[in-house]
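Q: What residues go here?
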């Protein structure tokens, strides 16, 4: 029998990161110590209070029954309270908030809910893969919009709308950005909300890194008057509360989009395990000092990595937010491309990073480093990279002398 060709699978390219991951696994199997900056996977646990609440809830047999796909009422109220104190935004927990199995699931299922085959969606590039591929799986056509520190974001959006047929149904925004760490201010959101209302385009804002910042606190798009007419925003417990494996997130904002997501989810899941939701309530309503500690930890790691690599001769901008450093490939290796440079860094320095091309075509020329190793390991990585760069420089000098 001829191997079947499934339409949606055909639209998904091979996962770029898999090649580096395979090399990393092989190196570790061979006994090499690999320092892994490749995945944004927090290395710290959730707070004791949150873990204790989970244990308490899980001992109640009633919590082992089916939950509700929209999230338990107390959790939705806790998320509304978070928005009120953090952003000054009032949300109705019944109609404007829904709990999701992490922000990734929420984005993908909302794409299923609002997309018809052939719809045009504006997706940032480079970006977290689900921003584009959630809609590709749903049958949409993606218009990639350059979202880099060097681009005029509003001009790029206006150009994309002007040259898209049909008019885009929705746009995805992600600030602070994964992978670039790019941030925007409230004035940008005011401009983009007015733009979206004028063109009747929905906005899906991914605010997963709302609390991982080192300068100004990132705003929410929902702070803008009229934003709830067109926008829904996704947040996550993963990075803020060190709960990535718990798979707990939210969508908040436009009631029509929230209802659409609720309809889809009612067919697909029964919500997160109730004890996880109860523990998430504790995280949102309880002592918030763990967020400050997490932010401080990432700041220290960022400074060690950026200062160390800069001293080693690799000029890297210091990110204002997120748990990532978006690093331009050193000039002497630029012709290799991000994938081959990532493989070289793994082989020669024992350091794993994510190639920029994995986040879209405008990510080429960069690699992403996650701040997920402690400071001692980061210093070790810096020493290894410095030695690798020195060897490369000597080799380059020798080649020129021979020539």
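A:
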């Amino acid at each position: 029998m001829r191997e079947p060709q499934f339409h949606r699978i055909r639209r998904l390219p091979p996962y770029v990161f898999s090649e580096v991951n395979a090399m990393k696994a092989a190196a570790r199997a061979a006994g090499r110590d690999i320092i892994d900056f490749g995945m944004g996977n927090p290395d710290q646990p959730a707070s004791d209070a949150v873990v204790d609440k989970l244990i308490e809830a899980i001992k109640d047999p009633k919590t082992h029954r089916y939950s509700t796909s929209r999230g338990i009422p107390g959790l939705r109220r806790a998320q509304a309270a978070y928005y009120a104190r953090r952003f000054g935004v009032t949300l109705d927990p019944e109609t404007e908030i829904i709990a999701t199995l992490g922000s990734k699931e929420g984005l993908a299922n909302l794409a299923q809910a609002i997309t018809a085959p052939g719809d045009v969606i504006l997706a940032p590039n480079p970006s977290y893969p689900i921003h584009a591929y959630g809609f590709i799986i749903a049958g949409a056509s993606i218009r990639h919009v350059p979202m880099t520190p060097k681009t005029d974001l509003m001009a790029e959006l206006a150009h994309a709308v002007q040259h898209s047929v049909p008019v885009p149904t929705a746009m995805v925004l992600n600030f602070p950005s994964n992978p670039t760490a790019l941030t925007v201010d409230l004035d940008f959101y005011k401009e983009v909300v007015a733009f979206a209302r004028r063109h009747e385009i929905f906005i899906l804002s991914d605010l997963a890194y709302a609390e991982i910042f080192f300068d100004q606190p990132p705003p929410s798009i929902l702070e803008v008057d009229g934003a709830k007419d067109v926008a829904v925003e996704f947040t996550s417990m993963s990075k803020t509360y060190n709960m990535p494996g718990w798979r707990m997130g939210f969508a908040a904002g436009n009631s029509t989009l929230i209802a659409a997501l609720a309809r889809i989810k009612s067919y697909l899941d029964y919500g997160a395990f109730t004890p996880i939701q109860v523990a998430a309530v504790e995280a949102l309503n309880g002592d918030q000092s763990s967020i400050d500690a997490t932010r401080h930890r990432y700041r220290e790691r960022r400074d060690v990595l950026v200062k160390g690599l800069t001293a080693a001769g690799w000029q890297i901008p210091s990110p204002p937010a997120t748990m990532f450093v978006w690093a331009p490939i050193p000039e002497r290796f630029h012709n290799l491309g991000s994938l081959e440079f990532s493989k070289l860094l793994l082989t020669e320095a024992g350091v794993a990073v994510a190639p920029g091309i994995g986040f879209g075509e405008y990510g080429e020329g960069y690699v992403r480093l996650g701040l997920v190793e402690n400071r001692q390991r980061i210093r070790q990585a810096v020493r290894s990279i410095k030695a690798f760069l020195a060897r490369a420089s000597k080799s380059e000098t020798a080649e020129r002398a021979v020539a």
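A: Context that may help when evaluating the design: The radius of gyration is 22 Å. The mean pLDDT is 94.
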